[in-house]
Design a protein that fits this description.
By secondary structure, the protein is α+β, with helices and mostly antiparallel strands. Helix content is 59%, strand content 9%. The protein is built from seven helices and four strands, in the order H-E-E-E-E-H-H-H-H-H-H.
Length: 228
């Protein structure tokens, strides 16, 4: 009975996936899955090509089919999918669907659910990458805006500024007061008379006067000696 259902399902799948299905042997075949990843915000999201290999166990559909998920030979690694890491979680995501469909042909349903899960996984990763880009852009914009707006004034920041400003003004006043006191001390010091040169004495008529005064003094002395 199981084998008859397997053959019947395989024939139906041929009509559903005429270009995507390839037989491997009597009990195994491979279906190509091309997830339909919608474009997000104008970004070109590349859709990967995956191969789902199905093998019928003897009592399928009363027991689960044997499934494997791979990339086509020599295919490049998809940008948003790591098949080696994602294979297990993606196949495990079919467990509940398999359990719900035991006893019935389920391959078409499994292919549909698997395609949807792959599309959701890719979109989640694209959204995560975009969110990280948006966050970096927002942080850069905030830093750029901070250059023009300066620091936000709060009561605490104003009090700190006022205290610093008052301290700076007091220091300036003290420095100016010390400068004035030093100038006053220097202004009260003795003034040194300028010493005239011989030429300056002669030009002022002081040289002849000094000589005459000296001569008069000598003659007066001599006269006093004679009288005595």
């Amino acid at each position: 009975m199981g084998r008859e259902e397997q053959i019947e399902e395989r024939e139906v799948l041929d009509s559903i996936f005429p270009d995507e299905i390839i037989d491997i042997d009597e009990k195994s075949y491979r279906i190509t899955i091309n997830p339909d990843v919608p474009q997000k915000d104008g970004e070109d999201v590349e859709s990967p090509t995956l191969l789902l290999t199905i093998t019928y166990p003897p009592s399928y559909p009363d027991e689960p089919p044997i499934l494997d998920l791979t990339l086509p030979p020599n295919a490049p690694k998809p940008p948003h999918l790591d098949i080696s890491a994602d294979r297990g979680p993606l196949l495990s995501s079919l467990t509940s669907t398999i359990e719900e469909n035991l006893g019935m042909a389920m391959i078409f349903t499994l292919v549909t659910v698997l395609r949807e899960n792959i599309e959701s996984l890719i979109l989640e990763r694209v959204a995560s990458i975009q969110a990280a880009k948006d966050r970096i852009a927002e942080e850069a914009e905030a830093q750029e805006n901070a250059k023009f707006h300066g620091e936000r004034v709060t009561r605490e920041s104003f009090l700190r500024w006022r205290e610093g400003f008052r301290g700076e003004m007091e220091a300036r006043e003290e420095e100016e007061r010390a400068r004035r006191e030093m100038a006053e001390i220097r202004g009260r010091g003795p003034k040194k008379e300028d010493k005239l040169t011989g030429r300056e004495l002669w030009e002022k008529g002081l040289v002849g006067k000094v000589d005459e005064d000296e001569d008069v003094g000598v003659e007066d002395g001599l006269e006093r000696l004679k009288v005595a």
